[in-house]
Write a structure and sequence with these properties.
Elements lengths: L10 E7 L6 E6 L2 H8 L18 E8 L4 H12 L17 E4 L5 E4 L5 H11 L11 E4 L2 H13 L9 E4 L5 H5 L10 H8 L16 H13 L20 E2 L8 E2 L1 H11 L10 E3 L6 E3 H13 L1 H8 L99
Parallel strand pairs: 6-7
Antiparallel strand pairs: 1-2, 1-3, 3-6, 4-5, 8-9, 10-11
Helix pairs in contact: 3-4, 7-9
């Protein structure tokens, strides 16, 4: 299997039915906007347990992001869904207690306990404190004000604090009028343009799920490591040329620090007082002293050495919007029609969820999370066409079916 870069984005999410607030669903995805549309029946795909019409539409109340790999996100998802049995929570800390049911034959089987919104949030708070997840560079974003208020109320009364580096953000969606202006131009209604305008404006639609934030960092690293044979490690001062592919470069402008991966990991862990930890959380650059997040440095490195296709898309100049081709007169139209690119404005198709199957069980012990996945597709440039040639309208694309990425054993409460 070809190694791939750390995915640009992957999250675990909590859904709530807008018609029945006691109905909840936990899942994971690389594209929250698309996944929510699937759950609500607006796109092909979605989980069977969210397909009941009397529960739609669903709202995404909060997400947990910052996972160092897709496998890490799936491990967290399974633990959040099964807090009554996961071994990542000690028995004396467990909030949700395991129950058993007895069949007609007298055989006892484990049963999933019913969980309210308060139970889901309290268990999320607990998972962020357990040793298995406490040092991961996670953050929680809330899209519903009442859910955020319930989280704050629980955080104030519970014994135990979440690590300082884990961020809690209330990210409410801004009205479309405040984003696009009082008068919405017609050309802004283009789907791809509208998506770009909404980025960073709050809510699920405002999430940045691509590698765009790493573009300047990648360009700097490629330039710095390309020809400088005299470059030395900022930590150990030894030659870096032979190990330049896996070197970590400071992302801050004006700093030319580059370090061996193992050297910087040791420096970050020692600075944090966790010299024996497997993965650092963050640390200061040995040269400029600016703080950097470890997973962001490693993500840039894996994108640089493993993400040829992703880099090509990231560095590609945005194209002008393609004009819709009118249906030509049959007397003047050519015998064949040339199809335009499937992608708008050179943007890649949103990543597919890649299920591991219902039977997948995460390992109880902490694993070496080096399994990386990519969430981008190859894109080719649109073919250049002379202006004086008329074409027939392109045929509609078949609907794209994306399989369910969430665990099918998620709980549904009435």
């Amino acid at each position: 299997m070809e190694p791939k870069p750390i995915p640009a984005f992957y999250c675990c999410y909590l859904l709530r039915s807008t018609k029945c607030h006691s109905s909840l669903y936990v899942g994971s995805t690389p594209s929250p906007r698309r996944r929510l549309a699937q759950h609500n029946g607006d796109s092909k795909g979605g989980a069977v347990r969210t397909a009941r019409k009397n529960l739609r539409p669903w709202e995404m109340t909060c997400i947990v992001t910052g996972f160092p790999s897709k496998i890490a996100a799936l491990q967290f998802e399974w633990a959040w869904q099964n807090t009554h049995v996961t071994k990542r929570i000690a028995d004396e800390q467990r909030i949700t207690v395991r129950k058993t049911t007895e069949s007609k034959s007298g055989r006892k089987r484990p049963a999933r306990p019913r969980s309210s919104l308060k139970d889901k949030l309290s268990n999320l708070h607990l998972l962020l404190r357990v040793p298995s997840f406490a040092r991961w560079p996670l953050s929680v974003r809330f899209f519903c004000e009442d859910v955020y208020g319930l989280w704050q109320a629980w955080s104030d009364r519970v014994n135990g604090n979440i690590r300082e580096g884990i961020q809690m953000v209330l990210d409410l969606k801004q009205p479309v009028e405040s984003v696009l202006g009082d008068e919405v131009p017609m050309n802004i209604l283009n789907k791809s343009k509208r998506k770009r305008e909404m980025l960073g404006k709050g809510g699920v639609d405002g999430l940045e799920i691509g590698y765009g934030a790493l573009k300047d960092h990648v360009e700097k690293s490629i330039f710095l490591l390309a020809d400088d044979e005299g470059l030395t490690c900022a930590v150990c001062s030894k030659d870096l040329w032979r190990h330049r592919q896996t070197a970590l470069v400071c992302p801050h402008q004006g700093c030319r620090a580059a370090s061996h991966l193992s050297c910087l990991a040791g420096a970050f862990s020692a600075e944090d007082g966790q010299a024996a930890s497997v993965m650092p959380v963050s640390g200061k650059c040995p040269k400029c002293g600016t703080k950097s997040v470890w997973v962001d440095l490693v993500k840039e490195m894996t994108l640089r050495i493993r993400g040829e296709k992703e880099l090509a898309l990231l560095m590609k100049n945005p194209q002008a919007p393609k004009a819709k081709v009118a249906k030509a007169n049959s007397a003047t139209a050519p015998a064949t029609a040339i199809a335009a690119s499937d992608f708008e404005d050179g943007a890649p198709a949103e990543p597919d969820d890649d299920p591991l199957g219902e039977g997948w069980q995460p390992q109880d012990a902490d694993e070496d999370l080096e399994s990386m996945t990519s969430a981008a597709s190859d894109v080719s440039d649109a073919e250049q066409i002379p202006n004086n040639v008329k074409f027939q309208a392109t045929s509609q694309r078949l609907p794209r079916v994306i399989e369910d990425s969430d665990w099918d054993d998620a709980q549904m409460l009435d």
